[in-house]
Amino acid sequence: MNYVKKLSLLLVVALVVALFSFSVYAQEYGGTFVFGRGGDSVGLDPIQVTDGESFKVTQQVYDTIVMFKPGTTEVIPGLAKDWKVSEDGKTWTFHLREGVEFHDGNPVNAEAIKWNFERWGYEDHPYHIGGEFTYYAYMFQDFPGVIKEVNAVDEYTVEFVLENPQGPFLNNLAMVSFGIASPAAVKKWGEDYFKHPVGSGPFKFVEWKQGDRVVLEANEDYWDGRPYLDKVIFRSIPDNGARYMELRSGSIDMMDYINPEDVQSVKENEDLDLILRPSFNVGYFAMHQDFEPFDNVLVRKAFAHAINKEALIGAFYAGLAEPAKNPLPPSIWGYNDEIEDYPYDLEKAKELLAEAGYPDGFEFDFYYMPVPRPYFPQPKMIAQAVQYYLSEIGVTANLLSYDWGTYLDKYYDDQFQTYILGWTGDNGDPDNFLYVLLDQTQNNCGYESEELHEILIEAQKSVDKEERIALYKEAQEIIHEDVPWVPIAHSTPPLVKKTMVKNYIPNPTSTEKLHRVWLND
Amino acid sequence: MTSYIIKRLLALVPVIIGVALVVFLIIHLIPGDPAQTMLGERATVEAIEQLRESMGLNEPLYIQFISFFKGLLSGDLGRSVMSNNPVLNEISVRFPATLELSFCAMIFAVGVGIPAGIFAATHQNSFFDNASMLIALIGVSMPIFWLGLMLIWLFAVILGWLPPSSRLSVGVELDYITNILLVDSIIQLNWNAFKNVFSHLILPSVALGTIPLAIIARMTRSSMLEVLKQDYIRTAYSKGLQDRMVVYKHALKNAFIPIITVVGLQFGVLLGGAVLTETIFSWPGLGKYLVDAIYSRDFPVVQGGILFFAIAFVIVNLLVDISYAAIDPRIEYK
């Protein structure tokens, strides 16, 4: 009897293995993959740019020391095969893969990495030219900022010594901005390097026809295996409707940003798949506590009960978003899913307002952004809807706006009573949302919580991920109780691909390497 | 004639200075700057200050203008603050695309518009006259983005006869030399590429040429009608000349001055970049690029780009004026 059981178990295992290996063997090498996108790249030196269209390309051409696991913000080995951090969290040692080469044949070694960081971080470096190195200064807090020194210990060991421990350090290194460039190529091209990118990534740069397309070809010697695709072409097709027609006429294989009204026709078309990128943003309604009555937590809670997030998402995001209950999007590690959102409940909201001493409501100013952002695709209409929801509990919101620059100036200057705004993540670290947006030294909604501040600082200094997760979960509970904002939505940007495009795993960080994508012709 | 052309070209100098000054002031005085665009939500007061400083935006305005103007005199329009690409390089890549499309659109507009206008004039109040003027009216008021999308939908998606957008299909090899792809493919005797480029030009040229076509057709008709009523036309007829002879030789030549004026103006306008057409047909021209630069407050690009347009416009006008003399021997420039 036992024998039969064992045998049947073995058969099942064999079947699963066979099925699995079938899907593995079905992967095909070859083909050109054409991606249609809304705009051209600004430049192809990742440290100099801040726009997603540039990063889409540089993600393919460059490698980072560590990188994000596909579909997540979890850090996995990249150019470094492993690493360790000292007790005090100030010294990080990375062991590099051996034998990796840049596309120009030069070795990717500790010296090359050291050279890149010195180029970015030292303003007097001879090749600190060609742009503003914006993301370096931003993530490492100034030039050279947190990174005190970078040492090439031996050919394949590189050591970072930090001024003080930085919890998000590893996540920072995984950002596409910090792609390692061939020093020889940077020296050769100088200010024009951004048009001649040379990294060690899965695809090599071939040509860039400005305003039209960027062409890449497979790096035969990629350390993680040759890409399945022979060529990748990124085409700029600015109009959403025209891009969708290109996809339907077959001249591109995949696209991003689709008009909401076309979503249904994609779902009905069996040659096309709609896939949603995991959210990496939050859109929120903030109540500034320097202004009465928003210093009263009961009022803030009443507002949280009064806004119908599901309905907003249905009406203004074409359903392509999820309601937010935390400042952190669920794709980021440390997300606290145990928190229960304040349900949409007008009676409860009115009770809370009465309890706070405003049974007859009150009047206040409500600012909305003049420009659509991924987290608020239609800010004015969303603001009008929120205004309507609030009128249901008897409070009157006066809608106001400014041009985008002035809006941000006034926001940073704490001039808004209430407003909508949002954030898109940089490095996939919870610190990049919770500390940046809500710490009492950072936020622009008059929110003060010593308890939260201590937790966030402790998490910033810690390099133990488990400990940090626990701290961030606690932080989200405090934020939930204090309601500095009503988080509204995390939008999930849509991508449309032909069904023949296989194994495309969108990453929350907005870009992904394509060497595991293959075409089923 | 030569001294006239030299005089006109010299007159370009004050135009350039004036345009440079006005563009510089307008773009610097409207709210927002490139630092803000680059940082977006991250635009904290300190970050903005730091970026402005390193971009040189904290210098007094007149110092910035002087350094811009100095560069201009040596033919250097500066580098884009967004991409760090030299503005002149960007223009030299994109302007040929705009030129090629505008030229083809004008060929379409003139090739259809003038014959239609003549026919409507010689058959005044006929069914064709009324119908073509109604179509012209619709053409003038047609939203280009709608027309463009409909053309793509019909000819590329449904019928599959023509490519939906861009300048060259993926997989067709062609070296870009002049960046005017029809010319490039002829230079390289690459007929496959030539056909491909040509097929890509058809839909955007029709979309872009529709409004000028309508304007040209209406102008041709009214100008022809006026001329056809004059005495010498009656004389020509009474001499026993054939209809064709009278219309094309006697009437058209005299009706041509206002037509050529309109054609020149329209061509100048098209050279200013067809933002909507370029957007719909993913045409990597100068118009869309410049509008994006205005949104991102990329000062050097906006300054350089608009200056370039101003010069192109003046030159087109000069060519129109010269062509007057070629058409009408009574016109003489001194």
Protein described:
The complex is a heterodimer of chains A (521) and B (334). Chain A is built from 16 helices and 21 strands. With 521 residues, chain A is α+β, with helices and mostly antiparallel strands. Chain A has a 7-stranded mixed beta sheet, with helices on both faces. In chain A, strand 8 and strand 9 form a beta hairpin. Chain B has 2 domains: 2-73, no CATH class; 94-327, MetI-like fold, CATH 1.10.3720. Chain B is built from 15 helices and no strands. Chain B has helices at residues 2-10, 12-29, 34-39, 45-55, 61-73, 87-122, 127-141, 144-158, 181-187, 191-228, 231-238, 243-271, 275-280, 286-295, 299-327. In chain B, helix 2 runs antiparallel to helix 15, helix 8 (144-158) crosses helix 10 (191-228) and helix 10 (191-228) packs across helix 12 (243-271). The longest helix of chain B is centred in the middle third of the chain and has 38 residues, at 191-228. Chain B starts with a helix and ends in a 7-residue tail after the last helix.
